[in-house]
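Protocol step 4 of 6: structure prediction from sequence.
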Amino acid sequence: RADGCVEQTGPAQAARQHDPVHTDTVTSVGALGLDLCMSGGRDKSVAVCSWRSGAVLRRFTAHEREVTKVTSAPGSSRIFSASRDRTAMMWELHGAPEPSQRFPGHELVVTGLAVSPDGSQLCTGSRDNTVCTWDVETGERLGRAAISRNLVTHLCWVPGEPYVVQTSEDKTIR
């Protein structure tokens, strides 16, 4: 559980399963507060659900291809998604059904996604060998790093630090 509490009822507890949320493979999942989770799928959508009931509370559908990653800004209702359509998008849980911000600029699928601890910047990584940082409010690209043979697989912003950790298919962590 996100609040650190662990429930135990015996040697093994059965997994809770709900009706399918996506019409195709689920490709990414993340927590959105204590009671909500978000997921992205091959059906090009981002869904926000109650993990307790399985109820779908919101669905966002502006990506043109499979959603590869989802994440959220700490302590906010902003949701970010990355896709094979070479973009990342920002959604407001309680806002309009269209993205509140778009982050275009990669040449291949976006495979890494991380939000700064203060929620002001987004970092995206791609199979195009680049990592980009973005201003969340304006959508402006703040920086771009290109490293040969750096096929980005995952990104993680380091809490309390101005650093992003990145993994790659070249077997390195940067």
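Step 5 (inspection) to follow. The chain has no helices and 14 strands.
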